[in-house]
Predict the 3D structure of the following.
Amino acid sequence: MATKKTFISCFVFIASFVVQTVLPAQSDIAEADLEAASAGKWLRIGSTTDGHVTVIPIEVYVSRVLAGEGEPRAGEAAQQALAVAIRTYTLKNTDRHVRDGYDLCDSTHCQVPRPSTPSSRRTAMATVGQVLTYRGEIAEVFYSASCGGRSESAADVWPGADYPYLVSREDDVCERDPAWTAEFSLGDIRLALARVGFEGDRLKDVRVDARNASGRVARLRLSGMRPNVIAGDQFRAAVGAVDLRSTAFAVAKHGATLRFTGHGFGHGVGMCVIGAGRRASRGESARAILAQYYPGLDVTPLAAVAAPIDTLTAAPPPAAAPPAAAAVVAPRASGINVVVPVSSSVTAPDLERMASRAHDDLSKTLGASVLPLMIRLHETLDSFRLATNRPWWVSEVAEGTSIDLAPAAVLAQRGGVEASVRIAVAELLVAGPLDGRPAWVRVGAARYFSRPSAATPASSRTRCPSDAELTLAVSAPAQREAETRAEACFAREIQKTRDWRAVR
Ligand SMILES: [Zn+2]
Ligand SMILES: [Zn+2]
C-alpha cells in the first residue's frame, strides 16, 4: 500500500504538468485514490429522478462522468482530452443548481455519471487537476457526441454566448459520416409544439427559414402555428433531441409526413467525442485533440488557476455553499435573501431594500405574500443564461420562491434594476392565484401591477400572446413585443372582470 501511495503522489505531481502520460494498464486506481487526489474538493450531485443528493470528490465524479459520457472504445488520448473537458465544465458550472441546493444534476442538462470503470479511473488520475483556461481563468467549455463534419459556434446555439474559442470549425474526421433520417407526421409535430406553448389547430408545413454559419438550422417557419417561427435548437428540444439528432438537417414534406435528413449528434459546440476518438486512433495526442476542439485554450493545473474556485468545500460540504465571488446576505428580518457579485454596482443591502419595498407595496395591492424569497443578481449574462436556460434578452426569471436577475449593467439599459425586481416579485405573488392560466395572464398581471402607471388596454381585436411567444421568442424585439402585448391584454381583461384573480 505504501509503495502504491508513493507512486500515486509522484504521478499526480507529474500529471499536473503533462497531460499526456500513459499509466501502465495493470495499475489499478481505486475511487479512494481519486478521493485522495481531489485535494478536498467535493461536489453535490442532485438526482433528477428522486432529488437525492450525492456528495463525492471531484476526481471520482470526473471518472464517473467519463464512464457515462465517453466512448468506451476510444484511445487513451481521446479519453484524457474528454476528462479535461469534463473537469473544466464541472468546475465552471457548480452554480447551475444553486436554487436546488446542489451543484450539478445527473441528467443531460449537466452531465450524466455512471459507475466508474478501471479505464475511466485511470484516465481521471492521468489528468488529475488539469483544466482548460482562457486568459488564466477556467474556461466555459462544451462537448457533444458528434459534430457531423463541422462544429458549431456557441453564439449560434445560445444567443449572446460569445467565446472566441467556441467557434465553428471543420472536423475532417467526421466529414464522411453517413446521414441520419427521421420522419414525423405533421400532427405529431403540432402536438410537440403545443406542449411547449404554441397555438394552432393545424400545422401545414415546416420550413427552414435561416441557417447559421455552420449550416445548422437557426430558425424554422411553422405555417399554421402561433408564433410561426421557432429557433432550430428549440425545435429539436420540442420534437425530441434523440430522434432529431442535431440541427444540421434539411426537411422535406411528403404528404402529411416530414422527413428530416441530417448529420451529427448533439449541439456540436466544442469537443466532438466521436471525432476525438478517431483523432486518437490516428495518433493525435490529448493536447492536439484539445487544441482542435478548443483553439486558444491552455491546459493548466488547477492549483495555478488565477481565480481559484472555492465553491467546493472540504469534504463533506455543509448545506448550500455560497457561489464563488458572491456576497451573500444571511437570512434577514425582511425574509429576503440576496446574492450579488462582489464587483456589482448594486450592493446586497441595496437589492434587499428594493425587493423589500416591492414586496411591501405589491403584497398590499395583491393580498398575497411569498416570503422568504431568494434573489440572485448574476455577474454575467452567461451565468444568468446557464442558471435559467433563458436567452440574454430576458431580464428576470421568477420561479417558486426564487428570482434570477440579469447583470445590473444590463438591467440599467432596460428600465433599471428596481423595475426588474418589481416585475419579478409581482410574478411570484401572482403565480399561486393564477396557477394554470396561460403565460400572458401571469406575465401581464406582473407587469401591470409592478409599474407606476397602468398600461393602455389592448383593443378587442388584439390577440393575446401564446405561451411560446413569451417563453420561446426568437429575438429580443419579439420578446419585448410579446411582453408588452401580454400587459395590454391583461389591462383589457381586468377592465371587464374588475378582479385580477378572475382573468383567464
Ligand atoms: Zn443540471
Ligand atoms: Zn466531429
